[in-house]
Amino acid sequence: MASTTSAPLIPVSIMPGIYVSNINTARAVLSPNYPAPGRPKIRYVLSLLNEKSQQPLIPAGQEENFVLHFIPLRDDETANLLAVLDEAIDFIVAGLKKKDGGILIHCNRGVSRSAAVAVAISMDEMNIDYPTAMRYVRGKRPRANPNPGFVRQLELWHRLGRNIRTDDGKLKDEYLKFKAEAKID
């Protein structure tokens, strides 16, 4: 007889305190039934989805246990990952500094958008280039596979010193040229 059990919905640890998952695991993490021995304590949930209406909700009575942050981002080669990367990294770093629970980065399937942000935070925190960060993240989450547009943007982000703005706050010329040529939103 075939087994009817399925794997538990547990996010994958990318680095201490930072986890990646799909939307179903994010919903499970927010559930009052989630806490159990061996499961990470998640407090911060970063949702990278097309629309806010897709974001998992905190169940009634659990509001004090979680901080949700939504960033609209399509899983599309022309979606502008770099325009939202600072916001995503700031949320992750702020959560890490509080030391009161882990940060879950999720998108719909846990493959492209969340993986792209996991690669970016790895690049930033470990001061490594895109290929090294991608190998690192795939070593933790083999299904990580940012779409080709996100890959090109992360490679550019590395070349730009992980900042698309000049010291005076203007967008860098190389970023603007790339954005126009790649038809990034």
From TrEMBL:
<feature type="domain" description="Tyrosine specific protein phosphatases">
    <location>
        <begin position="79"/>
        <end position="142"/>
    </location>
</feature>
<dbReference type="InterPro" id="IPR016130">
    <property type="entry name" value="Tyr_Pase_AS"/>
</dbReference>
<dbReference type="InterPro" id="IPR000340">
    <property type="entry name" value="Dual-sp_phosphatase_cat-dom"/>
</dbReference>
<dbReference type="GO" id="GO:0005737">
    <property type="term" value="C:cytoplasm"/>
</dbReference>
<dbReference type="InterPro" id="IPR029021">
    <property type="entry name" value="Prot-tyrosine_phosphatase-like"/>
</dbReference>
<protein>
    <recommendedName>
        <fullName>protein-tyrosine-phosphatase</fullName>
        <ecNumber>3.1.3.48</ecNumber>
    </recommendedName>
</protein>
<dbReference type="InterPro" id="IPR000387">
    <property type="entry name" value="Tyr_Pase_dom"/>
</dbReference>
<keyword id="KW-0378">Hydrolase</keyword>
<dbReference type="GO" id="GO:0008330">
    <property type="term" value="F:protein tyrosine/threonine phosphatase activity"/>
</dbReference>
<dbReference type="GO" id="GO:0017017">
    <property type="term" value="F:MAP kinase tyrosine/serine/threonine phosphatase activity"/>
</dbReference>
<keyword id="KW-0904">Protein phosphatase</keyword>
<dbReference type="GO" id="GO:0043409">
    <property type="term" value="P:negative regulation of MAPK cascade"/>
</dbReference>
<comment type="similarity">
    <text>Belongs to the protein-tyrosine phosphatase family. Non-receptor class dual specificity subfamily.</text>
</comment>
<dbReference type="GO" id="GO:0033550">
    <property type="term" value="F:MAP kinase tyrosine phosphatase activity"/>
</dbReference>
<dbReference type="Pfam" id="PF00782">
    <property type="entry name" value="DSPc"/>
</dbReference>
<feature type="domain" description="Tyrosine-protein phosphatase">
    <location>
        <begin position="10"/>
        <end position="163"/>
    </location>
</feature>
<dbReference type="InterPro" id="IPR020422">
    <property type="entry name" value="TYR_PHOSPHATASE_DUAL_dom"/>
</dbReference>
